[in-house]
Design a protein that fits this description.
Layout lengths: L2 H16 L3 H13 L1 H23 L2 H7 L1 H24 L15 H13 L3 H9 L10 H29 L1 H28 L2
Length: 202
């Protein structure tokens, strides 16, 4: 992979990471509730999930899902159910920004697991990477080195974007102290809408 190709991939990855999705929404919610430092656990879980998604794409799972429409539908339904469940949990969460709210009992592993599962909850991401990554591959060079570079680049950019989102959410904590419950309900509703719309999408 040449430097020029990598720079184009970097810009495309940044654009993809800035597109709203389950993980960015989760980073926003956790950032508001737990703060950016604790949300690093969520972001780390999502990073592992995205690395797995890219690895699956590299091994040709995207082609398998394209051929097996029934398998894709099953994965969409499972992913959709998880996002609906996650939306309900966000809806019922304590309002962020409250001075009496404590996060000491929140398990870091639980936050990381949510980030990981959110990254895996949409099988269309696998299909996207299956079509996205080959555009930047040079067949005459070492494929595994190129795959590794693209994986690390995407994961790093995604983590930085999600950390920025989490920090932004914490910076408006005063506003959330007044409207925090409504914020939870909006985010929870978005998760539910994504989860319901996932199995219905083409």
């Amino acid at each position: 992979m040449t430097l020029e190709t990598w720079l184009i991939y970097l810009v495309a990855t940044l654009g993809l990471s800035l597109t709203p999705g389950p993980n960015s929404l989760l980073a926003l919610t956790h950032g508001a509730i737990h703060g950016p430092t604790r949300t690093l656990k969520t972001i780390a879980g999502g990073a592992v999930g995205f690395a797995c998604v890219i690895a699956l794409s590299m091994f040709g799972i995207a082609s398998l899902l394209t051929l097996a429409e029934e398998l894709l539908l099953v994965m969409k339904i499972i992913g959709g159910i998880y996002l609906v469940w996650l939306g309900i949990q966000v809806w019922r969460s304590p309002a962020p920004g409250r001075s009496d709210m404590t996060n000491d009992g929140v398990c870091g592993w639980h936050m990381a697991r949510q980030g990981f599962l959110a990254a895996l909850s949409n099988p269309k991401v696998i299909l996207f990477f299956g079509a996205f990554l080959p555009q930047f591959i040079n067949p005459s060079n070492d494929l595994w080195i190129q795959f590794l570079i693209m994986m690390l680049t995407f994961v790093l950019i995604e983590c930085l974007v999600e950390l920025f989102i989490a920090g932004f959410a914490k910076s408006v904590s005063n506003w959330l102290g007044r409207c925090g419950k409504g914020f939870n309900r909006v985010c929870g509703s978005l998760f539910v809408l994504i989860g319901v719309g996932l199995p219905l999408s083409n």
